[in-house]
Design a protein that fits this description.
Elements (H helix, E strand, L loop, with lengths): L11 E9 L4 H12 L5 E6 L3 E3 L10 E10 L3 H14 L15 E7 L4 E2 L4 E2 L8 H10 L11 H5 L8 E2 L7
Antiparallel strand pairs: 1-4, 1-5, 2-4, 3-4, 3-8, 6-7
């Protein structure tokens, strides 16, 4: 009887957005990166520099610290989302009705391989990816030749989105 070969789950390159503006945001992101490095069925491949950005929505909150990470994973998209939300909760994230309000940690799936996903819980590519400097510039740092699932090169998006005060963390932030 021939030996049965087990199919290995496909590995997918995934880009994640990281952001925080409460409870020592730079440390929150560093802890999140350490947690991403421990995700099951996943490998952390790259992490951008930390960037300081102005808040979206209400301006009476501290500036954000943002980064983008690249992982390779065999986790399906919703299982990955669940794992990311668990990391957020472990780091003190409290989900509130206020959109774009202050938070201790926000982890978003920006791109999941070359897939387009639209479900009640998850939209990929992330709905704000193409307009947000705090996503595009860190993403370009680790994946300058990236092309989105729709065929648009990342460089084309960068040319349309101003820096809008985005700075690498080594420069001054107000928080």
């Amino acid at each position: 009887m021939p030996e049965q070969q087990l199919e290995r789950p496909a590995e997918h390159e995934v880009y994640l957005g990281l952001g925080a503006n409460l409870a020592n945001p730079a440390a929150q992101l560093q802890n999140a990166v350490a947690a991403l490095n421990q995700l099951p069925q996943s490998s952390l491949l790259a992490v951008s520099s930390l960037y300081c950005s102005r808040p979206m929505g209400p301006q009476d909150q501290p500036d954000y610290v943002n980064a983008v990470a690249k992982i390779s994973t065999t986790l399906p998209p919703l299982a990955l989302l669940d794992a990311l939300q668990q990391i957020e909760q472990l780091q003190g994230r409290q989900r509130k009705a206020e959109r774009w309000g202050p938070r201790s940690l926000d982890l978003d799936i920006l791109l999941y391989a070359n897939q387009t996903i639209t479900s009640e819980r998850l939209t990929v590519p992330h709905y704000g990816l193409a307009q947000r400097e705090f996503v595009l510039y860190p993403l370009a740092e680790i994946a300058p030749q990236l092309t989105l699932p729709c065929g648009t090169p990342l460089k084309a998006l960068l040319s349309k989105v101003p820096v809008n005060g985005l700075q690498k963390l080594s420069e001054s932030c107000r928080w």
